[in-house]
Design a protein that fits this description.
This protein is α+β, with helices and mostly antiparallel strands and 225 residues long. The chain has 3 helices and 10 strands; from the N terminus they run ααββββββββαββ.
Length: 225
């Protein structure tokens, strides 16, 4: 085999390798896959329910095994985790008007309108003063002609499916909520002395609630960069 043939084979092999490598990079950097990976990472497993706002880099997923819901933005680079009990409502907004709603303490408002002219938006509401809501624009008028965009009716159906999901989560959490009337707690016994070296540690004087019952602070949120 001459030098020319070896050169041609080398050039072809390099071209094939670059093509394959480029395809792998494009596949791994796909927006939906990145969001799915981010949510899977923070939830500890693949989401049981997943909704992605195409072209906006945002998504939401649930894990009923761990009782958590996570939201993602920046194509999955940032995520926040909430307990399912902190999900207190959802709104389906079409062209700036709330057309369907599920909210804790209220009857579900069913969807009446399915046509959209400018926008289809899903807003999730959480019991968290720092991050009280999360918005996914599932379709806007500028999405017309974009490959990955949902059609307006598909966006409405997906948002309405999540309204039903949130309503179910709320109902189940209400059923699991303990009764307000609780029996009086049993009297606590003084702890036994703990031996530490040659001397025994005496029990603490009773000064109200024990120190291990004090509030340790709010739950930390997990952010993934």
């Amino acid at each position: 085999m001459g030098d020319l043939e070896r050169l041609i084979i080398g050039v072809v092999a390099a071209g094939v390798a670059l093509t394959v490598l480029g395809g792998i990079v494009i596949w791994s950097m796909d927006e939906a896959r990145r969001i799915r990976r981010g949510l899977k990472h923070v939830l500890g497993a693949a989401p049981h329910n997943l909704l992605i706002a195409p072209g906006r880099g945002r998504g939401v997923g649930t894990n009923f095994t761990s009782g958590q819901v996570a939201v993602a933005w920046d194509a999955g680079a940032w995520c926040l985790i909430y307990r399912l009990e902190e999900l207190i409502g959802a709104e389906l907004i079409i062209d700036g008007r709330v057309e369907a709603r599920a909210q804790r303490g209220q009857e579900r408002r069913p969807l009446d309108r399915v046509e959209a002219d400018r926008q289809v938006r899903l807003r999730l509401v959480f019991d968290d003063p720092r991050h009280p809501d999360f918005v996914l624009d599932l379709w806007i008028a500028e999405d017309e002609g974009r490959k990955t965009a949902l059609a307006p009716d598909e966006a409405v159906q997906e948002a309405n499916r999540w309204i039903a999901l949130v309503d179910s989560v709320i109902r189940r959490s209400m059923l699991k909520r303990p009764s307000a009337a609780r029996p009086a707690p049993a009297a606590r016994l003084a702890p036994e002395p703990l031996v530490a070296g040659p001397q025994a540690q005496l029990p603490l004087e009773d000064s109200g609630d024990p120190p291990w019952d004090k509030d340790e602070g709010q739950d930390d949120r997990e952010a993934v960069d």
